[in-house]
């Protein structure tokens, strides 16, 4: 298996609300999608939104919502200023800040917000990586 993630699908409680959050609020480009699902193009992957219960049924798992899902999504940017701009855009779209943007102990600058269904997004400036899809060539030469 070649290591890659082709699509990230989030099981959402209110599809229309989540579409508005990602499309209108965050400005994600929406693709043509069949009813009951929404797809957005990202750099190097896609984001899918699908009803939480339907996604659980499709995967043959219990769809009861719980606490922390054990993962977060990340959006890396080129500067601390851009972290603040993305966080502000997310807030105006209805996101809830779970950790305000701040200096990190690893030398970067990052904050977290949650989307309408509680999925965590980290917005980070990592001075040790180039911005772009992660690969072996994205490490800065001075690391």
UniProtKB/TrEMBL annotation:
Matching Gene3D superfamilies: 2,3-Dihydroxybiphenyl 1,2-Dioxygenase, domain 1
Pfam families in the cross-refs: Glyoxalase
VOC domain location: 4-126
Highest taxon above the source species: Bacteria
PANTHER family linked to this entry: BLR2520 PROTEIN
Protein name: VOC domain-containing protein
Species of origin: Marinobacter pelagius
Lineage of origin: Bacteria, Pseudomonadati, Pseudomonadota, Gammaproteobacteria, Pseudomonadales
